[in-house]
Specification:
One of its GO terms (molecular function) is hyalurononglucosaminidase activity. The structure is a single chain. The protein has twelve helices and 16 strands. By secondary structure, it is α/β, with parallel strands linked by helices. The chain folds into two domains: 174 residues, Rossmann fold; 308 residues, TIM Barrel. Strands 1-16-15-14-2-13-12 form a seven-stranded mixed β-sheet. Strand 6 and strand 7 form a beta hairpin. The longest helix has 30 residues. The radius of gyration is 26 Å and the shape is elongated. The two termini are 27 Å apart. The N terminus and C terminus are likely disordered.
């Protein structure tokens, strides 16, 4: 190690398993308090404004390969399998919550009455109560509860395409009761009955869940939706804008937003949006609409928004999102102020050709938070993405921390100059005056990587005179100098009083 000046604080190195040109990690002892963050909604987990949540049956991978996946980067983890219970994220499909009425789109079979107005609400709620207790046995456990009912939509006019059967059969139901009605008259009555029944079953199910398990954040998957799916029809002039009529229709659902305790919009991508500007527009408008709606119930305490995404494209299960796609989905959601991202997967995700996850396709997009314990010392780490669009956020997350750990790719000589400029720009901020800095040059295992002396020179670290600063050359891939770095940081943290 080359010491530029003795550092009297502490930090932490996050072991990256993917290439990164310039990234930052902010660390603080748990006994210390970070300054308040200027975020859109209150963190649902203290000091964690953006959560990474895993909602896929990865236990199938473990059974098949014998490899236990490291899921420590995720705040909440839950499987989508029907047999999984007691998880801190629970997904209620139609067959897992009461007697949800719907029609099988393949066979046409009516299940539980088929139409909302033919369901028996009392029976449904009785069964739903049993199901909620089965899947969420604990009254104390905090987590997410997501109801995934997609067969019909509570706003009548939105039941287009294959869902039109709910409108047609609702009209027929009215006409069977009164043969004297015209189709137009029957349609008016059918619309009123359908929407009233749909509202009742959705609202009462939601209220039951909140009453039984108030420590869960309850909401419906894909609500709200923006219906900005015209990127195929209009690829060159696509704006992603939510049409005014769809915003008005979302406003008709204020009864749902007022009772929900979280929102769960979706930003799944098709290959038509692969690595494109249109993907960014698609995601941005959907998340912004959810954020708008999050203020309906309380303008000063908006609902948390957890955005559902997938690591693969919806129309090609075997193709994973690229880094650009991850920035356009996870990164965009984080930048807009979502409370977290839910990475969803079904059986198809765990049954792809390779049976493996590609490590170099999972960069830090936005920010992650994790805790690392060594002995009796626990360190809280903010892992901040190095992409240009997130650099304006660095200062905000650096305020009030005990140390800044700045990681550069020591083997990418073309980007060292940019890394130097970003580092000096950051520490020149008046609010960050005096905060110690630890510089880590990663990838020392690669030929031509800069050593510690070269890093000090190239990054002009000797010019930094207003704080303690030191430099390590490391290899996260080979775990070279990782443990000694951590030990050094912990030893110096013992003299730090908060």
């Amino acid at each position: 190690m080359e010491t530029v000046r003795q550092m009297q604080s502490f930090g932490i190195c996050v072991t990256y398993t993917y290439p990164i040109a310039s990234g930052m990690v902010f660390a603080t002892l748990l006994v210390c308090c970070c300054s308040s963050l200027n975020i859109r909604a209150r963190p649902v987990v203290q000091n964690s404004p953006f959560l990474s949540i895993w909602n896929a049956p990865t236990e199938l991978c473990t059974e098949r390969t014998g490899v236990q996946l490291d899921m420590n980067i995720f705040s909440f983890i839950g499987s989508t399998l029907k047999t999984s219970t007691g998880q801190n994220i629970t997904l209620f499909y139609p067959d897992r919550l009461g007697y949800y009425p719907y029609k099988n789109e393949i066979t046409g079979e009516a299940l539980n009455g088929g139409l909302p107005q033919l369901s028996l609400l009392e029976n449904h709620l009785k069964k739903a109560k049993e199901d909620i207790q089965f899947y969420i046995p604990s009254d104390e456990q905090f987590g997410l509860a997501v109801i995934d009912w997609e067969n019909w939509r509570p706003v009548w006019i939105r039941n287009w395409g294959s869902k039109d059967i709910y409108r047609q059969e609702s009209i027929e139901l009215v006409q069977q009761r009164d043969l004297s009605l015209s189709e137009a008259e029957a349609r008016i009555i059918a619309k009123m009955e359908f929407e009233a029944a749909a509202k009742s079953i959705m609202l009462e199910s939601l209220k039951l869940g909140i009453e039984m398990k108030p420590n869960r954040l309850w909401g419906y998957y894909l609500y709200p939706d923006c219906y900005n799916y015209d990127y195929k029809q209009n690829p060159y002039n696509y704006t992603g804008t939510c049409l005014d009529i769809e915003i008005e229709r979302n406003n008709e659902l204020n009864w749902l937003w007022e009772k929900s305790t979280a929102l769960y919009p979706s930003i799944y991508l098709e290959t038509a949006l692969r690595s494109s500007r249109n993907a960014q527009l698609f995601v941005r408008n959907r998340v912004q609409e959810a954020i708008r709606i999050s203020y309906v119930s309380n303008a000063t305490h908006p609902l948390p928004v957890f955005v559902y995404t997938r690591p693969v494209f919806t129309d090609v299960y075997e193709e994973y999102l690229s880094q650009d796609d991850l920035v356009n989905t996870i990164g965009e959601s984080a930048a807009l102020g979502a409370s977290g991202i839910v990475i969803w997967g079904d059986m198809n995700l765990t049954q792809n050709k390779s049976g493996q996850f590609t490590e170099d396709m999972i960069p830090t997009v936005g920010f992650n938070m994790r805790k690392i314990t060594k002995g009796n010392v626990t360190i809280k780490v903010w892992d901040i993405g190095g992409q240009p669009r997130f650099r304006s956020m660095w200062e905000r997350y650096c305020r009030g921390v005990n140390a800044v750990v700045y990681m550069v790719d020591a083997a990418d000589l073309e980007k060292v100059e940019a890394s130097k400029n970003e580092l000096h720009s950051l520490i020149d901020k008046p609010q960050l005056h005096g905060i110690p800095v630890l510089v880590l040059g990663n990838k020392r295992d690669l030929p031509g990587a800069l050593d510690e002396k070269q890093l000090i020179e190239k990054l002009n670290l000797s010019a930094i005179q207003d704080r303690e600063i030191c430099c390590y050359s490391i290899s996260c891939k080979e775990k070279d100098n990782i443990d000694i770095t951590l030990q050094w940081l912990i030893q110096h943290s013992k003299s730090r009083h908060c």
